[in-house]
Amino acid sequence: MSNVFTNQQINKIGNSIIYLSTKVGDLNKTKILKLLFLLEEASVKKYGTPFFGIDFQLWKLGPVLKDVYIDLSDENITLLKDYIKRADYNPSEYVGIKDFEDDEFSDNDIYLLEKVIEFSKNKTARDLVNYTHGENSLWRKSAIKNGVLEQLEAKTLNSTEFNIDFSLLFEENNFLKEKYDSAVENLEFKKHLKK
To answer: Please, where are the H alpha helices in 24-167?
Structure first.
């Protein structure tokens, strides 16, 4: 998948954050990045299709959606400015600036949003980092596959250009792997048509 977002992807990311901000609370940068990843992972794992169709990079505290990380780190939000802002009561938290719009969301998407909320509602950002770095996590499997696990864990490497490999979810399931590969190919084709 490419790093260029379509308007639909930005809309879906922005509205997902709006939805999450109303139900999860304490939505800081790290928590947003982890929840976006959990949505992508849950969708690929359950349906064989991406939730957003975007790349998450393998970083020390990753998986990280690099452009969203940069946007949330900047003083002025640009990529997601039509969706979220820093909370007045705490500049490290983010809140929606409009109501959730479900135009880009299927019933399956809403189901996954609710499942991720149920899972994460009482977890801190640190809890989510620990979860996404667990023993059988995609982060760990991708780090091993790319030969950078030791450096990331020793903190001698903060970030990489390697992407999380969602196809590692299907080591035992060729049907879902083929479905996922086909979905990624279709997303790339649609992006290409819009250029």
So the answer is: 29-47, 66-73, 107-120, 125-132, 138-145, 149-153
